[in-house]
């Protein structure tokens, strides 16, 4: 293996990387490409080499002493396409994001196809792929993720559904709205309580558990003998279509039997919901009623090697969105409590930053408590802390689904403010105790083009940088440490005019005024177009963990 010696321009400390093209990661210039140790060299070279080797060993020791930890920010539905009302810029391009741009200037950039080019995927499939689990091998339906995330304990053999409270026209059997109400946090749990433990008259041996998730969603688990996950669902997937009859997807007796059970379950749920006083009350208030639960994504709990086993990093996650939390739980990832983080527009992003920073700073700070399905109370988190802090943000995807252009831009700007807070909290730890060396990484799981209103297949931008380079990009420690840590709300939809946004977008379009890159590649902004010029090029989501691990261990 050949060794490349290089010099870091900013600190003037030589360090090395071995083999391959890893030099792109950090250094600005090579001083020479080395020779093998046993080659005869003139004495001046020998002394130069020994000096450099000494420095290398010293720097390696320092690196060994500091444990590497990563804050990984996943913005759901991040990427988009050029929007005419934004002057043909994407919402990410239009947003003013000085902190995330500083990450791009400080690190390496690329464009990522979360699963594969041309594939529009769900968040769960994409997350599996990004975390190193091939969805073609491991994916078994989203039902189990949703239910685990909602706090329903699942045993082998149990089936679960991803479920929506929806509105059906009883006379015609047409689902008029697949989401009864997005703001269902107070009423959802009451209706779930009414459905939990319901009895199936023809199948008395089977137990039904229902638990509220987020927004209009809930988790549904069926327990009992001879169940199959290989059945269709009742969800018509579009409004104004008939409620579907569940059918077996293979010829097994188990699948036929399970389809019959689930059809009866769907009817029983409708009966209970129609008679529930809460729906009478909603009707009298002119609100849409929640008289059906759409059942889809029937799945069994996946059995996979745990994340820590696979990657050698102890992981934690902040994900109020239940399906993501359930996916994390399936991979053995601890789910941190983050009070006020809701997984919707009312979320307090600061709370997520504080939870992840606490988990990555432990043991000097206390770790947040963690959530265990099937248990009422939280349990203490890992006292030694975590190495990989996964911070999930849903609001940007919601804005995409809601076709809210301004909100998608402003919500992403709010993510930028949160990243500034996270960087400050991590820097306080890194600078004061010199125990950990942090990296910051940001990307998305798929595109949700805001004018289209659903997931699509465009690649997502990806950036990873070392915190210390981010600090240089921001103008020094004192600047980062002055970041305001006050919690803030996401901006409301319609809080700014589109014209102003277009103007802001066009101001960001001028690249001459950008601050220069600090390390890594020449990219100076975080967006879909700039990322395409990054040194990572275009890569697949299955390669992401490999890139992160290579980057942080240098
Ligand atoms: Zn989505």
Automatic annotation (TrEMBL):
Gene3D superfamilies to which the protein is assigned, alphabetical: Alkaline Phosphatase, subunit A, Metalloenzyme domain
Signal as UniProt keyword: no
Keyword set, alphabetical order: Glycolysis
Record domain Metalloenzyme: where: 68-332, 384-467
Catalytic activity, as annotated: (2R)-2-phosphoglycerate = (2R)-3-phosphoglycerate
Pathway(s) served: Carbohydrate degradation
GO molecular function terms noted in the UniProt entry: phosphoglycerate mutase activity
One GO term (biological process): glycolytic process
Record's function text: Catalyzes the interconversion of 2-phosphoglycerate and 3-phosphoglycerate.
Family stated for the protein in its record: Belongs to the BPG-independent phosphoglycerate mutase family. A-PGAM subfamily.
Name of the protein: Metalloenzyme domain-containing protein
């Amino acid at each position: 293996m050949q060794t490349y010696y290089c010099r870091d321009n900013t600190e003037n400390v030589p360090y090395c990387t071995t083999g391959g093209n890893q030099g792109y990661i950090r250094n600005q210039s090579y001083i020479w490409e080395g020779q093998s140790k046993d080659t005869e060299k003139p004495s001046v070279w020998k002394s130069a080499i020994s000096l450099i080797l000494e420095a290398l060993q010293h720097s390696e020791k320092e690196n060994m002493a500091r444990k590497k930890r990563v804050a990984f920010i996943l913005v759901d539905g991040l990427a988009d396409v050029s929007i005419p009302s934004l002057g043909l810029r994407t919402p990410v391009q239009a947003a003013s994001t000085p902190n995330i741009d500083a990450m791009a200037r400080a690190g390496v950039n690329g464009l990522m196809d979360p699963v594969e080019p041309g594939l529009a995927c769900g968040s769960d499939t994409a997350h599996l792929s990004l975390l190193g689990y091939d969805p073609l091998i491991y994916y078994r339906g989203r039902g189990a993720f949703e239910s685990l995330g909602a706090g329903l304990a699942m045993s082998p053999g149990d089936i679960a559904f991803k479920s929506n409270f929806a509105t059906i026209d009883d006379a015609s059997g047409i689902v008029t709205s697949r989401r009864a109400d997005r703001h269902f946090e107070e009423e959802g749990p009451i209706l779930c309580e009414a459905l939990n433990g319901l009895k199936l008259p023809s199948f008395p041996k089977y137990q039904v558990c229902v638990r509220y998730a987020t927004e209009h969603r809930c988790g549904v688990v069926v327990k009992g003998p001879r169940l199959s996950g290989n059945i269709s669902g009742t969800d018509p997937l579009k409004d104004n279509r008939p409620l579907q009859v569940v059918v077996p997807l293979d010829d097994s007796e188990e699948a036929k039997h399970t389809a019959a059970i689930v059809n009866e379950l769907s009817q029983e749920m409708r009966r209970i919901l129609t008679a529930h006083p809460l729906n009478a009350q909603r009707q009298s208030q002119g609100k849409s009623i929640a008289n059906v639960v759409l059942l889809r994504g029937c799945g069994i709990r996946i059995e996979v090697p745990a994340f820590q086993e696979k990657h050698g990093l102890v992981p934690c996650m902040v994900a109020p969105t239940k399906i993501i939390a359930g996916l994390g739980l399936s991979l053995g990832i601890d789910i941190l409590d983050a009070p006020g983080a809701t997984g919707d527009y009312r979320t307090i992003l600061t709370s997520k930053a504080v939870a992840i920073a606490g988990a990555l700073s432990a043991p000097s700070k206390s770790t947040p408590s963690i959530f265990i399905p099937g248990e009422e109370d939280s349990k203490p988190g890992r006292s030694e802390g975590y190495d990989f802090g996964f911070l999930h943000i849903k609001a940007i995807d919601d804005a995409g689904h809601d076709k809210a252009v301004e909100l998608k831009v402003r919500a992403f700007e709010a993510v930028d403010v949160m990243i500034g807070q996270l960087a400050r909290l991590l820097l306080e730890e890194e600078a004061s105790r010199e125990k950990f060396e942090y990296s910051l990484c940001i990307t998305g799981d798929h595109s949700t083009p805001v004018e289209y209103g659903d997931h699509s297949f465009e690649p997502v931008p990806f950036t990873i940088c070392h915190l210390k380079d981010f600090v240089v990009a921001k103008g020094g420690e004192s600047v980062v440490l002055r970041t305001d840590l006050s919690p803030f709300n996401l901006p409301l939809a319609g809080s700014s005019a589109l014209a102003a946004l277009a103007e802001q977008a066009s101001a960001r379009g001028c690249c001459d005024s950008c601050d220069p890159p600090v390390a890594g590649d020449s990219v100076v902004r975080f967006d879909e177009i700039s990322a395409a010029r990054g040194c990572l090029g275009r890569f697949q989501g299955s390669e992401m963990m490999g890139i992160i691990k290579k980057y942080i261990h240098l």
